[in-house]
Sequence to fold (510 residues):
Amino acid sequence: MQTSHNPHLVLELRGITKAFPGLIANDRVDFTLKQGEIHTILGENGAGKSTLMNMIAGLYPPDHGDIFIYGKKVHFTNPRQSINHGIGMVHQHFMLIRNHTVTENIILGTPQHFKLNFRRVNEEIRMLGEKYGLIVEPHKKIQELSVGEQQRVEILKVLYRGAKILILDEPTAVLTPQESEALYQIIANMIQKDHSIIFISHKMKEVMSLSDRITVLNRGKILATFIKNETDAQKLAKIMMGNEEGKELSVSSPAPNQRHEVVLQLEKICANDDRGYQILNEVDLEIRSGQIVGLAGVSGNGQAQLAEVLSGIRPMESGSYTYWGEKLNAPTVSDMIARGLGYIPEDRKRYGIAGSLSIAHNFLLRDHKNPKFYGQQFLDINKMNQYARVKMEEFDIRAASEKTQAGVLSGGNIQKTILARESSRELKFLIASQPIRGLDVHATAFIQKVILQAKSEGLAVLLITEDLDELFLMSDHIYVICGGKMVGNMPKEEANIEQIGLMMTGVTVS
Fold:
């Protein structure tokens, strides 16, 4: 017999279970969302958060268990059904068409009359934006907007469809501090207008600031749910890792009398984007051995292209690139690998791994000529697999076996696979682009300690990040890029977060 509905519950999950071959993603999960609350879900990468949200959003059905919306049992077989029940999901990676306008993106897929009145729809969107503090010009194309404005479009898109229950997946992952503060106000406006929010984040400060309740998910199971005032960040982090302390990596001190030699020097580097427009404008940069140089900037200001120039992927149009005292004219990817360059790319799934290959094969992508993996001139599969098992243990890569396809790993385990591959070669310079984006506290701490350990052993590191907490934690020296230009650089001790945040948005700081 069905229990009576609590009128304050807008969403209820009872005994939700979802399994994939060799993996139980969600195991009898119970979860509730109350009217007008922010309920945060915390969990390691691979804990089952995305699977759970995708079932609520109608991307696939649960194997067992029930979903109730406002007390009514529902069974979603597609996202349209979820949307029709007032649920909207704002993904971490935006689902926008860059060469279409704001209005075109918002109305795409919604029922429209044969003759569309764009003036009327533009005004509806403008008024909706004003209601929630989501100010954006409806006629502008997505490619003309900042990252923060694009996120507003994503939120407007689900509100325009009538969403009262919103799922926000890592909403501040790509925002500056100023944009994040603006988003917090938008969230407050939505709560005041009787919306309810499921919030997914790994940033403990914002979790503790925004949440009403916090649920911890670990390996597909709910471990605990707290009212915010009954817990703290340290307690949540410990429970989130299953009450495990985790493997600590001790970071040794730099070698005595270690010489900080100039490893890389750029002078007036210019480069074009894929459309032939200038994206890097006379960039200067210097990095020394045993040093982490942090590069801060809002996404799309040339960071990715700079990493591509350094790694030999993108040609430079002009300027001087000096690497360990040697001027490079047109370096290739193979050249830079041979010169000891390691690269953790921003888009880990697209550029960091071969998703259809096993974890073991992915370890060989940068080291496939190494004779230790061969016997009688042929690849020795047993040696390759044994090496992979050792690295999986060393880097805490969680998968059924070394034969598991890399593409099915969680984000944190993909990042550990890339880091294990890159750092296990003899490196002289490492580019780490957004290395902890979207990762849980456990994976974040692990990856940061590996990078710090490599720095202490003399490695030169370029850390490209939009996370200013990470920037100040890791860097020795900070550069800021805006519009393809370096707009400032300073030792970490002379910088502060507000100053860097303003420089990232193009504001001149005296």
In short: The CA atoms of residues 58 and 79 lie 4 Å apart. Residues 244-250 have pLDDT under 50 and may be disordered. The chain is about 30% helix and 25% strand.
